[in-house]
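User: I'm putting together a teaching handout on how sequence relates to shape, and I'd like one worked example. Could you take Phospholipid-transporting ATPase from Kryptolebias marmoratus, show the sequence you're using, and then write out its predicted structure as tokens right after it?

Assistant: Happy to. First the sequence, then the structure tokens directly below it.
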Amino acid sequence: MLRWIRQQLGFDPPHQSDTRTVYVANRFPQHGHYIPQRFADNRIISSKYTVWNFVPKNLFEQFRRIANFYFLIIFLVQLMIDTPTSPITSGLPLFFVITVTAIKQGYEDWLRHKADNEVNGAPVFVVRSGSLVKTKSKNIRVGDIVRVAKDETFPADLVLLSSDRADGTCHITTASLDGETNLKTHFSVPETSVCQSVSQLEALQAVVECQQPEADLYRFVGRITVTQHGEEIVRPLGPENLLLRGARLKNTKEIFGVAVYTGMESKMALNYKCKSQKRSAVEKSMNTFLIIYLVILLFEAILSTILKYAWQAEEKWDEPFYNQKTEQEKNSSPILKFISDFLAFLVLYNFIIPISLYVTVEMQKFLGSFFIGWDLDLYHEESDQKAQVNTSDLNEELGQVEYVFTDKTGTLTENEMQFRECSINGIKYREVNGKLIPEGMTEDSPDSSTAHLMGEELLFLKAVSLCHTVQISYDQPDCLVGDPFSHANGFSSNNMEYYASSPDEKALVEATKRIGVAFTGTSGDIVEIKSFGKFEKYKLLHVLEFDPNRRRMSVILQTPSGGKVLFTKGAESAILPFATSGEIEKTRLHVDEFALKGLRTLVVACRHFTPEEYIDVDKRLTAARTALQQREEKLQEAFSYIERDLQLLGATGVEDKLQDKVQETIEALRLAGIKVWVLTGDKHETAISVSLSCGHFHRTMNILELLQQRSDNECAEQLRRLARRIKEDHVIQHGLVVDGASLSLALREHEKLFMEVCKNCSAVLCCRMAPLQKAKVVRLLKTSPEKPITLAIGDGANDVSMIQEAHVGIGIMGKEGRQAVRNSDYAIARFKFLAKLLLVHGHFYYIRIATLVQYFFYKNVCFITPQFLYQFFCLFSQQTLYDSVYLTLYNICFTSLPILVYSLFEQLVHPHVLQSKPALYRDISKNSLLSFGTFLYWTLLGFCHAFIFFFGSYILMGEDTTLMGNGQILRANRQLMFGNWTFGTLVFTVMVITVTLKLALETHFWTWMNHFVTWGSIAFYFIFSLFYGGIIWPFLHTQDMYFVFVQLLSSGSAWFAIIIIVITCLFPDAMKKVMYRHLKPTSTQKSQMEGGEGSVGPEYDPVKAQRSPGEDNWHLLAAFPSPAAPGQEPCSLSLYQPPRRRPSAVWSPCAATSMGKAAVPAWPTSWNK
């Protein structure tokens, strides 16, 4: 604890140096100068609280909320001074809210503790004192040698020392870290790979020097120094030598590794970063409204205090005969008295701020988020994946999106690659039935056979089958453990399957195998291919890994004849500038042709080294790889030196199919008023081709280009030209294409001009984009003066920064790992589900929470304004109008459930109509239901109803002599006015009925649950009041309410008053709704009346689908295809016609399944059986 405190204060930094030294098997040097470094233990802590800090830490977090802190202050004021209401009235609701939240957070943290204990207590084997010792995972220390068996996960970040294989390699999967399911090969250094027994490892003398822990999963810089026979051998260590905690060992019997990062310093733990808290527009509006109501509260309290002293200026009211002042009151300070009175009024009116609003909103968001996961229309049957919600705080934001930023590969496309064409030595070829056919020839042509491939063609195919990171898995489970080339001895190579992190690489290697040059496996540093039946072995000397900046990867091999050759492949912009020989111009033309067809292109080249050149290359690479400082920069320099003077071999064209219903989805989003931007790393010809095919760009659209800009001035001039063209051709729709380099220039100096051009374009396509550039574009739109709500959708690690930057981030569960899904707010299996997510779920969530927030403020204005008005009739004596029990239970019991159920199930329009008419989404855009005008309407309505409650009760019941509850007051005309508790109870009764029925008027979709809580709340109030007022409760100080409610209900005039007042309040509201609906209906109201017979546009069919009456629940929203009735045309649903599915237990319908039908006019007969 002391060390932790010192670290927090900066006196004891955890890592004094940039590197750490790890002594293998903790064999520390014997000389006395060595001071051991201190490292974290191997415990994983994902929990937030401990038994000791839960109460203070949780309370601190909860009272950081303004509303909670405000009610705490009010509660403390009630305890300190003599206030008109009991401290219980504000203390109990506060206690309820704090307790519910604390229980929820405590339970969640208990689950985290439970999961941590399971992980930390897992059994592991460690080499200690010459033997294998079984211990718990949390006991592993840095420097321990750990044994991991097949299919086990690594308990810490380990540097691989040896495996059961002779070459010291092992295969792992990192699916739990980055979602990639392919097998990855990791290596040990030759000096340690021979230590395969415990005794050999115990005798090993080695020291690992590496960087301090960092979160990047793909970066590791270190070196290992092994002492053999008194000689020190230094070997470089990189990511390929590090086994990360959480990864799993595959196809390898066992490995030994030394722990270098443990516990919370492991890379997996460092990636447990909390995403920045995103706040929805509704939450911001809610805080604004709270401040306005706080101002109203302060105004009422100050006005009441001033009026009290103005009234008491007359002596007869200052000290009436029946209320003489005490000596202390006479001598007290006027300022203190004023402050005391002001605080007392503040306490009296404090219920205008709704404390239960926060807890209701949290419950609504939490419970409402389940509906997305339950929706069968968002379930992808082929991959067995349902939609998932990672952040329920942003549900309503789905209904406010104005810009969608989407990745292309894997998001709009399937990320399933098919080899289609290639260009070799300036000649185009296509694959037909496993043969390469030159352009212009057919399969039957005499010269078209693949057997005639010679020279450059064969070299090209060998380059493609050798330059990659593909792994092989065989059907026989032990094949990889034994001889990796066992297929050569009678085992069929057809039984092997390729695994690759890049679908492009897999498609290319599979294509060369079909054509006749098959990659058959690796053994240590030997790579084997089978070229038209003949096996060839190459020695892998170096791999120059792919990185986003170079946009290429290379391998250096020793050929069977002993020569040294470099094969490289990458984007044409990364290869062609460095090519000095080969058919460069022809290949460039072919690459552009492939791109225009929508194919993904890669260029392949080679370089042959002389023995002297290779010695120089090897020396440079070794020096760069063993550097501990600035290793990346030195490697980049070495790579640039090596990858030049290339001989161009050819190019490949791979097709990536569009996902299902992409075009319809983009069109629906456009009709909903949402602008779609495509941000991709592909070259612009490929990107434009895909944009046209998916409907992002129309054929009639005027496409503007901002490409290959070299300087700021050139970029500015081009932007001005584009702006002029848009003004001149303002009738035509425009599409903008911009590349990464030009974008960098545009964002540097000409942001405003660039934004002006973009906003006037219907669609924008950004190509050749780096991941951080994607995030910059999103931030640019987010921070523009209009502050539009943005949504980013992608499937790969390169989309994470964009997903985290946007207001709403959506991950696609694709083939590029799970980073996007892990970092997103929502995850869906296919792009087509986005339309339903926004147009239906977003619409519903927004109208529900918008009404919830405003209704809460409305009912609290209704609640507290009569209390304010009552002060004019009681000489501002701070007498409370309602009993303290009613004050406490109003928001907790009497009016809380109807609005919660409304906010979970309300539907203004049937889901089918929302999908078939995307334009309805515009009705709720720009936070229209929470505009200041709407807020003002609800607030004024609350004040009007409160005036009617108070003065209606006063006028109708003021002369009733039959009601003489306690607190009888003799009026001037000697008639008896009924008691103040009876009057307050009448006002309260009218109020509970009115605010509940007001919500009933707002409800369009009635379910049995709505009926139950609406009428049940009113019934509960009556039953509770009869029970509460019908018994003398011994623990209450006063019995003010005894028999009051019974006496009130026994009066016919009270019933008459209740009915008259409720009708007076709600009748004008109902009339206004009817008038507006008929004279000035919104698009949504028109759709309610039409009953869903509209369509999204001329290219869409009407929504007609067979439904049974019981299926009009809100989450089984799919329209199933139905056979046409006799004499009718077959009907179809434009956007969604999911196949019939057999719901499993996982997809069992929720309670809403049989909740009835929306209260709208009858649907077309084709929707009913």
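A couple of points you could highlight for students: Confidence is low (pLDDT under 50) at residues 7-14, 475-493, 961-977, 1092-1169. The radius of gyration is 37 Å.
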